[in-house]
Amino acid sequence: MNDLTAALLSAREEGEQLAGGTFVRETAEGLDLSDLTFRRVRFDHCQFKGCAFSAAAFYECAFEGCAFTGCRFHVSFWKDTLLSGCKAEGGDFRKARFKGCTLDGLRLRYANFTGALWERCALADCDLTESACQELRIVKTTLKQADLTGADLFRADLKGTDLSGCTLDGITLSASCQELRGAKLHASQAAVAARILGIEIIE
Questions:
Q1: What is the DSSP annotation of 76-139?
Q2: Is residue 46's pLDDT more than 60?
Q3: Which of its termini does the chain have fewer beta carbons within 10 Å around, N or C?
C-alpha cells in the first residue's frame, strides 16, 4: 500500500478529513472517498482510477499534472483550489460547485458538468469538447482559450460571461438560444452565432 492510499484510508476511517501534506507520483485506485474533506493538500502527478469523490470537499488544494480515470465528483465542492495540467476526460462533475478556483490546461473532453456552478473561477486552455454542460451556471468567471466544440449548453446560464476567447463550434442550445443572451462574443464568432440562430450570411 502506497502513502497516498494509506493516508486516504486513514482519513476515511478516523476523521473524514485529510489536511496538509504533499503526494508525488502516487496512485489511488477503486477507493470510496465520498464526503471526505481535503484541506491544503497538494497532489503532484498523481493518478486516481475508479475513485468516488461524491460530495467530497476541497479547500485550498492543488492538483498538478494529475490524471482522473473513471472518477466521480458528483455534488463535490471546490474552494480556492488549483487544478493545472490535469486530465479528467469523461469525469462526472454533476452539480459540483467550484468557487474561486483556477483551472488551467485541463483535458475535460466528454466530462459531465450538468447542473454545476463555476463562480469567481478562472479557466484557461481547457478542452471541454463534447462535454455535457446542461444547466451549468457561470458567475463572474473568466474563460480563455476554452474549447467548447460540440458541448451541450442547453439551459446553461452564461449571462455576463465573456466567451470571446472560446471555441463554440457545434454547441447545443435551446431553440430560442436564450443561453447566449447577455453573453459576450467576439466579432469573429458572429458567423458561428448566426449558424446557431439559423441565419445565413452571404458574403
A1: -EEES-EEES-B-TT-B-TT-EEES-EEES-B-TT-B-TT-EEES-EEES-B-TT-B-TT-EEE
A2: yes
A3: C
- As a whole number, the mean pLDDT across the chain is 92
User: In this predicted model, what pLDDT tens digit does every residue of 57-106 receive, in sequence order?
Assistant: 999 999 999 999 999 999 999 999 999 999 999 999 999 999 999 999 99
By the 8 A CB rule, do 176 and 198 touch? no
3-state secondary structure of 8: helix
Which residues share a beta bridge with 4? none
Could you tell me which residues are beta bridge partners of residue 50?
none
Task: Report, as an integer, the average pLDDT of 147-154.
Answer: 96
User: Quick one: cell of 58?
Assistant: 476541497
The strand pairing partners of 69, in sequence order, are 49
